Amino acid sequence: MKVLLFFGLVAFALADVTRFEGDKVLRLKPVLNEHVKVIRELANSVQLDFWTPENAEQVTVGMSVDIRVPAQYLDMVFTVLQQSGMQLEVFIDDVQEAVDRQIENKGSPRAHSYTKYNTWSDIESWMNSMATANSDMISKEVIGNTYEGRPMVVLKIGKKSGSTKPAIFMDCGFHAREWISHAFCQWFVNEAVTAYGSDSQMTSLLDQMDVFVLPVFNVDGYVFTHTNNRMWRKTRSRNAGSSCLGTDPNRNFNAGWCTTGASTNPCSETYCGTAPESEIESKNLADFIRKNKSIIKAYITIHSYSQMLLFPYSYTYELAADHDELMAVAKGASSALRSLYGTVYTSGPGAPTIYPAAGGSDDWAYDLGVKYSYTFELRDEGQYGFLLPESQIKPTCEETMLAVKYIAAHVQKNLY
């Protein structure tokens, strides 16, 4: 009886895992208003997964639109698109094959791997061991729990000092499926600790400043991408009156909340929640930054994909008060990044550079008074999208380190 129960539970678990056999990722190029209308009508009639932009309402003439089309809708979608005369290209021919290929290191290394997409349990163990092994450089703080009760852990990196130091805050993993983001925060922590004493810039930074790192913001969603649905994006909270779960945490901050590029529909991937900071994860982060507002001089949030370095504003086309300086720093950081592998990033304020989107953490932090507020959209430009292979973790993190160090150096020299 116990054996039958065990196999029944296994079968139930397997049945709950979302598969993507035959799904394709298409890149569309709408060049007419009619094309934009076609895309929006398709989104209303079938279940499309928008990779970039993040929903149909953000589609405009001239932009590249990447969508995942489930296999059962392909014939109909292809017919509609071909009848419209819109340019299209198949970027990923079979999404499940791309999911399976993403994990290249099949073995389980004895030590924590920085070139592997680690599970939450691996990351949690790693944070504990890093704090224990480097107690003179790293301290750990739980800033609150997620909706499902998992800890949100911030690592404070810096040479211990008797006085309070200015700080930089960096987070990764707002959107669960953006795995390269989580990988970068782990890479940064390890690089910071190992480079201290040998790298003069890193040594100076950690002597004079602290860096708060939140390696996984959306822990519940990240766990779900490993266990049930690789393409999950939002948090995992329950929405009253709806069977759809989760909120887009990067639409849940008090920065033009829910005015543009966000949705009031709980089933939307850009659902803004019931109010600013209605998600416990958003509130935990905001509370921590508010508590440390006097010392936090920069906010850096890591996302993917598009190869962009963005700064405020995204909820309005108005330029930030510090626009010229923010742009100069972004261009310098992008140039530093490009110097290693030739990877080209586009820099600029969020709304005109990528698309308008209200409720973002970077805009919120800037309006709070954190002058140097930046969003990275890491590799690539759509060939793999959210399914960047593990072989690209190392070069992506190496080049991104150069950009982050550039920003940090500027902040360190221009404290306010």
From TrEMBL:
<keyword id="KW-0732">Signal</keyword>
<dbReference type="InterPro" id="IPR003146">
    <property type="entry name" value="M14A_act_pep"/>
</dbReference>
<keyword id="KW-0378">Hydrolase</keyword>
<keyword id="KW-0645">Protease</keyword>
<dbReference type="Pfam" id="PF02244">
    <property type="entry name" value="Propep_M14"/>
</dbReference>
<dbReference type="GO" id="GO:0008270">
    <property type="term" value="F:zinc ion binding"/>
</dbReference>
<dbReference type="Pfam" id="PF00246">
    <property type="entry name" value="Peptidase_M14"/>
</dbReference>
<dbReference type="InterPro" id="IPR057246">
    <property type="entry name" value="CARBOXYPEPT_ZN_1"/>
</dbReference>
<keyword id="KW-0121">Carboxypeptidase</keyword>
<dbReference type="GO" id="GO:0004181">
    <property type="term" value="F:metallocarboxypeptidase activity"/>
</dbReference>
<comment type="similarity">
    <text>Belongs to the peptidase M14 family.</text>
</comment>
<keyword id="KW-0479">Metal-binding</keyword>
<keyword id="KW-0482">Metalloprotease</keyword>
<protein>
    <recommendedName>
        <fullName>Carboxypeptidase B</fullName>
        <ecNumber>3.4.17.2</ecNumber>
    </recommendedName>
</protein>
<dbReference type="GO" id="GO:0006508">
    <property type="term" value="P:proteolysis"/>
</dbReference>
<feature type="domain" description="Peptidase M14">
    <location>
        <begin position="116"/>
        <end position="411"/>
    </location>
</feature>
<feature type="active site" description="Proton donor/acceptor">
    <location>
        <position position="377"/>
    </location>
</feature>
<keyword id="KW-1015">Disulfide bond</keyword>
<dbReference type="InterPro" id="IPR000834">
    <property type="entry name" value="Peptidase_M14"/>
</dbReference>
<feature type="signal peptide">
    <location>
        <begin position="1"/>
        <end position="15"/>
    </location>
</feature>
<dbReference type="GO" id="GO:0005615">
    <property type="term" value="C:extracellular space"/>
</dbReference>
<dbReference type="InterPro" id="IPR036990">
    <property type="entry name" value="M14A-like_propep"/>
</dbReference>
<keyword id="KW-0862">Zinc</keyword>
<dbReference type="InterPro" id="IPR057247">
    <property type="entry name" value="CARBOXYPEPT_ZN_2"/>
</dbReference>
<dbReference type="GO" id="GO:0071466">
    <property type="term" value="P:cellular response to xenobiotic stimulus"/>
</dbReference>
